[in-house]
C-alpha cells in the first residue's frame, strides 16, 4: 500500500484500473449491437484506446457497439483525458508533500510544473473550460446536423455530444463509420472541432497563464511562449506541407475547390497533433504527407492538456540545444531565457525513450506481419502519441501486434518518464561521482 501512496506509481495504476473496468463493461453482451460478448482482445484494445484517448479501433464503433457500449467509450475517454491525471496531482498535494521533484517527473510529460497554491485555481479552470467548451461545441454540432443534414433531434444531440467530448479530449473516436469524411466541406462541423482540439492541446497551464496575464506576451512564462509559438509554427508547417503535397491527389484534395482544399489541409494539420479525426482518406496520402504526419504525431501538443506525443516544449528544447551547439553558444534557451540542465536531460530522455519504443514496436510488428513498413510505422507512432489516425491496418494486425499497439497507447498516455521512474522507484542517488572524461562524439 505504501507504494501506491506515491503518485508516480499511482498514475499507471489508475490508468490500468480504468482500462480493466472499461474492458469489463465492453465485454458485457449488451455492449454490442449483436447482443453477443465481444472478444476479450477487442474489448481490451477498445478500452485501452479510449482511456488513452487515442481512437484506434479494431471494430467499427457505430455498428459494432450498442448505445451502452458507445456511452461507456465516451466515459472512458472523458476520464482518460484529464480526470486521472487531475486525481493523481491532487493526491500528491493532499498527502502534504506538495508537488516536488518526483511528482514533477511523474507528470512533466502531461503538464507543466504546478505549485501547491495554484492547484485549486487550475482545477477550477479545468472544470470550467471542460463544461463550457464541450457544451458549446455539442450545441453547435447538433444544430448544424439538424438544420443542414435533417438529422433527428435525438441523433443530432448524441452525435454532437459524442464528437464534442471526443474532440475536447483529443480522443478521435467517432460515431460515424468514416469519421468526418462525410463533412469534409462543412466548415461548421470541422471548424468547431479544430478549435476544440487546438485549445485543449495547448495544455491547462498555458490557458491559466493566458487568462491571468490577459494575453500580454511579455508577462507569459517561458513555457507558455514556447508552447504557443511552437504550436503556431507546427500548424503552419503542417498546413503548407499537406496543401502542397496533396493539392492534385485525386484520392484526397484533388477533386475539391480551393476553399475545400484549404479547409481540409487546415484540418489535417491539426489532427496529427493527437486528435485522430480524419476528413480525408489517410491511406490515400502521398508518402511525403505521411512523413509530415510522422513528425507532427511524434511531437504532439502541449503539456497538461489532452494531447500526446513527446510534447511541443520537449521538441523545442531539443531544437534550442542543437541550435546553441551549431552557433557555439554556452547555454541553450529561447525568448531571452536559458534552460536548466535538468530540463535538457529530461527532454533528451523523453525523446530517446519514445523513439526507442516506437522503433522496437515497429520492428517486431514488421517481423510478424506482411503489411507495408510505412503503414506499420505510422500505426506505431499514432498509437504511442495517442493520435488515433490510421492507414486502415489496425484490424488486420495479428493479435500479438494489436497487444503491442495497446501497450504503446498505454505507455504513450502515462508517459515514458512516469513508467521508467515507477519501475526504478527504489533506486537511490549514488553517494559518489566518477571521474570526468570526454569521449569523441560524431
3D structure, described in words:
It is found in: Cell membrane. It is a multi-pass membrane protein. It comes from Parapontixanthobacter aurantiacus. This is TrkH family potassium uptake protein. The protein contains 17 helices and two strands. A two-stranded antiparallel sheet has the order 1-2. It is globular. It is mainly alpha-helical. The termini are far apart.
- Please provide the ordered H/E string of secondary-structure elements: HHHHHHHHHHHHHEEHHHH
Q: How much of the sequence is in beta strands?
A: under 5%
| Order of adjacent strands in the largest pleated sheet | 1-2
Report on the biggest sheet: 2 strands, antiparallel
Principal-axes geometry comes out as globular
Terminal residue distance: 47 Å
Average pLDDT, all residues: 85
How many helical elements? 17
In terms of per-residue confidence, which ranges show pLDDT below 50 for 5 or more consecutive residues? 91-117
For the CA atoms, what is the radius of gyration? 21 Å
Strand elements, count: 2
Structural class, from secondary structure content?
mainly alpha
Roughly what percent helix? 55-70%
Q: What is the count of structural domains? A: 1
From the structure above, extract its key features.
two-stranded antiparallel ribbon, 442 residues, mainly alpha, globular, single chain, transmembrane helix, 62% helix, 2 strands, TrkH family potassium uptake protein, transport, Cat_transpt
Amino acid at each position: 500500500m505504501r507504494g501506491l501512496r506515491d503518485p508516480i506509481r499511482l498514475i499507471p495504476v489508475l490508468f490500468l484500473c480504468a482500462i480493466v473496468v472499461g474492458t469489463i463493461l465492453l465485454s458485457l453482451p449488451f455492449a454490442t449491437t449483436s447482443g453477443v460478448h465481444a472478444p476479450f482482445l477487442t474489448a481490451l484494445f477498445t478500452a485501452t484506446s479510449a482511456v488513452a484517448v487515442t481512437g484506434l479501433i479494431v471494430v467499427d464503433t457505430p455498428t459494432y457497439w450498442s448505445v451502452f457500449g458507445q456511452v461507456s467509450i465516451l466515459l472512458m475517454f472523458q476520464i482518460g483525458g484529464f480526470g486521472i491525471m487531475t486525481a493523481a496531482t491532487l493526491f500528491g498535494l493532499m498527502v502534504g508533500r506538495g508537488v516536488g521533484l518526483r511528482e514533477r517527473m511523474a507528470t512533466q510529460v502531461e503538464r507543466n510544473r504546478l505549485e501547491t497554491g495554484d492547484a485549486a485555481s487550475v482545477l477550477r479552470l479545468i472544470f470550467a473550460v471542460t463544461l463550457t467548451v464541450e457544451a458549446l461545441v455539442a450545441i453547435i454540432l447538433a444544430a448544424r446536423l439538424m438544420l443542414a443534414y435533417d438529422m433527428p433531434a435525438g441523433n443530432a444531440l448524441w452525435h454532437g455530444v459524442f464528437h464534442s467530448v471526443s474532440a475536447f479530449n483529443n480522443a478521435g473516436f467517432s460515431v460515424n463509420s468514416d469519421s468526418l469524411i462525410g463533412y469534409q466541406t462543412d466548415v461548421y462541423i470541422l471548424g468547431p472541432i479544430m478549435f476544440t482540439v487546438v485549445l485543449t492541446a495547448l495544455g491547462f497551464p498555458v490557458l491559466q497563464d493566458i487568462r491571468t496575464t490577459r494575453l500580454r506576451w511579455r508577462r507569459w512564462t517561458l513555457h507558455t511562449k514556447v508552447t504557443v509559438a511552437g504550436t503556431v509554427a507546427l500548424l503552419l508547417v503542417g498546413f503548407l506541407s499537406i496543401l502542397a503535397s496533396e493539392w492534385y491527389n485525386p484520392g484526397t484534395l484533388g477533386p475539391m475547390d480551393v476553399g475545400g482544399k484549404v479547409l481540409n489541409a487546415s484540418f489535417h494539420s491539426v489532427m496529427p497533433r493527437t486528435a485522430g479525426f480524419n476528413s480525408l482518406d489517410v491511406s490515400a496520402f502521398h508518402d511525403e504527407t505521411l512523413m509530415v504526419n510522422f513528425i507532427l504525431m511524434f511531437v504532439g501538443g502541449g503539456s497538461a492538456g489532452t494531447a500526446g506525443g513527446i510534447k511541443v516544449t520537449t521538441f523545442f528544447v531539443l531544437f534550442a540545444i542543437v541550435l546553441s551547439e551549431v552557433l557555439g553558444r554556452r547555454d541553450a534557451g529561447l525568448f531571452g531565457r536559458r534552460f536548466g540542465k535538468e530540463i535538457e536531460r529530461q527532454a533528451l530522455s523523453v525523446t530517446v525513450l519514445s523513439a526507442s519504443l516506437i522503433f522496437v514496436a515497429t520492428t517486431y510488428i514488421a517481423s510478424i506481419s506482411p503489411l507495408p513498413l510505412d503503414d506499420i510505422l505510422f500505426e506505431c507512432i499514432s498509437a504511442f502519441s495517442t493520435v488515433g489516425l490510421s492507414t486502415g491496418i489496425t484490424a488486420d494486425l495479428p493479435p500479438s501486434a494489436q497487444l503491442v499497439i495497446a501497450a504503446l497507447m498505454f505507455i504513450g498516455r502515462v508517459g515514458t518518464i512516469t513508467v521508467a521512474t515507477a519501475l526504478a522507484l527504489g533506486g537511490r542517488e549514488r553517494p559518489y561521482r566518477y571521474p570526468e572524461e570526454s569521449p569523441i562524439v560524431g
